[in-house]
Amino acid sequence: MPRMASRRPLLLALAGALLASVVLGVAAGSVRFALPELWHLIAAGPAAAGTDAAILWQIRIPRVALAALVGLSLGAAGAILQGLFRNPMADPYVIGVSSGAALGAVLAMTGVIAGGAGWAGGLARLVPAAAFLGAVGALVLVYLLARVDGHAPVTYLLLAGVAVSSFLSSAVSLIVYFHPDRLKPVYFWLLGGLTGADWAQVGLVAPYAALGLVAAGTLVRPLNLLLSGEETSHHLGLNVEREKLYALAVGALLAAAAVSVSGMIGFVGLVAPHVVRLLGGPDHRVVVPGAALLGAVFLVLADTVARTAIAPLELPVGVVTSLVGGPFFLYLLRTRKHAGDLD
Fold first, then answer.
1. Sign for the pseudo-dihedral over CA of 264, 127, 96, 215
2. How many CA atoms lie within 13 A of 67 on its CB side?
């Protein structure tokens, strides 16, 4: 396909940028590795002795790997949901996934789901699972509320998502209000971050991210058809309701997997698909993989900044993505508005 072939350089460039960002992320930190030293330690493998090898294999590489997985998941989820809603302002959190994840995580951190054991009682390890279940539960609730006569119109999904998000966010605030002693871990989780990332977390999120990314690849044709509207897509042979539900499930799976281990990291799923569309057009054969790659690049670089900007202290990576992504997205929005690209 010539049009696709002409856009392959964009995907190759993004893949190259991801590789470069990973190398930078692994090399940079309170202990810096020159490229020859880095290559030597990687070649020696995780069994290598010494402090530098331990830092690289037990701290630095799993954290960068987790950042890449979270970025891939949020970027792809954003592309899917923006394509589904045909709205460049949509992101993985528009359907209540983030609020559901937050509620599940806060319930675990405060001990509400375990008789008050809480964070100090060892429930920190349950936070990812609780966040994931909360995100999936929020999606199910949104879909059930949006169904009308067996269908879930996009407008109703958006409205239900806003309503559920608002309700769940209020529930989170209420729980935190009654558990002020657990404010610190809750606050840092809500800001988003990858502090304490390890191979166990990578292993936890990797299967869900891989499953979601493979499923996202099967959605490019339905999403391209949906660009012409639901009625036209139906006449072209697309089972619109089935594909909408499938796209919602895949987007929620990716977002829930990411949020469960990283907390609330904003703007990755919002900005990455938008930028890829500006560079390569609306074809989802480019937008979905391109947004995943760009999301990974963005988050790996943001986490590197979070670790190094005020070292030895760390910034929450969600703060970095918002500080960078917010103004950048406003710039994109303003330029597109002047160009007449937005309705």
1. positive
2. 34
